[in-house]
Design brief:
With 272 residues, the chain is α/β, with parallel strands linked by helices. The protein folds into two domains: 110 residues, Translation factors (Elongation Factor Tu (Ef-tu), domain 3, Beta Barrel), CATH 2.40.30.10; 139 residues, Rossmann fold (3-Layer(aba) Sandwich), CATH 3.40.50.80. The protein has a six-stranded antiparallel β-sheet with strand order 4-3-6-1-2-5. It has a six-stranded parallel β-sheet with strand order 10-9-8-7-11-12, with helices on both faces. α3 packs parallel to α4. It is globular. Bound molecules: flavin-adenine dinucleotide. The site of flavin-adenine dinucleotide has 21 residues, from β4, β5 and α2.
Amino acid sequence: MISRQSKLIMSIRPSKFQLRLLEITSHPDTDMVSFKLSRKDVQQENHNLDYKAGQYAAMDLGTKEDPEGPVRSFTIASSPTEVEFILVSTRIRDTPFKKKLANLEIGTPVKITAPVGSFVLPEGDDSRSVVFLSGGIGVTPFRSMVKYATDNHLPVRIVMLDSNRNEENILYRMDFDQCVRENSNLKIIYTITGEGQDKSSSSVSAAGSNWKGEIGFINKEMITKYMTSNELEDSIFYVCGPPGMLKAMQKLLQDDLQIPDERIKIEEFTGY
Ligand SMILES: Cc1cc2nc3c(=O)[nH]c(=O)nc-3n(C[C@H](O)[C@H](O)[C@H](O)COP(=O)(O)OP(=O)(O)OC[C@H]3O[C@@H](n4cnc5c(N)ncnc54)[C@H](O)[C@@H]3O)c2cc1C
């Protein structure tokens, strides 16, 4: 049953926003671009975009000529503790939607819906351990949750394995390294797969000789190397990444590590 107070909050909470584009940052040697938008609505300054770390929202750019339509969902990669802006990151490819997004003028109002989604930290239990398995651009909800847990000094223990094709594609690495320095409950392991390199180059050479992280896809050995058996038996596993990675991680968790479904949470970026 919905209480009178919840009804009131639901009726007050706006469902659509127009947020001003503040900043565009391209990530060198990749097709990834990050966008910062204001948290306040352009027309109604008292309407602040509220969200839980890990949630996503739909952005409408009005690109009717795009075969997939004018709307895309994007995870809000910032944390609610970052009060001045929200952060969205994506791969810019050759679709009318992405081309328009990449070429927006700073200051343009962007239409976005109120954030939704349940790919969020365990609610009501800050002491529960979590494991984040991230592939490529699927790191966006993890940046939000890692930053939120760090800024709020939450006791939640986080182990994150972040898999990328090469070192350049490790998104938010400086932010993550800063969080690791501040948060003793946080462990982050990067792995380089070498995907997309030409056939003569192995994942080892793709990683470069100074590479100190892991090499290859996330597998059972990699997970058990960084987690105790107690952590394996108790943690909630979050997975986000491209469809192939999600399938592989589901198999790894269910078949190889015998993790029950109720301890696995998956966020699928449909459209990739
Ligand atoms: C809950 C949810 C959260 C999401 N969060 C995010 C998010 O945080 N960030 C995000 O980026 N997306 C996110 N998505 C996915 C997003 O909504 C789009 O579907 C996605 O970005 C694809 O955009 P696009 O349709 O413009 O196609 P794109 O994938 O951008 O472009 C497709 C075109 O690019 C070309 N192409 C395809 N693969 C390659 C390749 N490997 N190299 C070069 N060119 C290629 C092809 O010509 C293809 O036609 C999320 C989706 C959901 C449902």
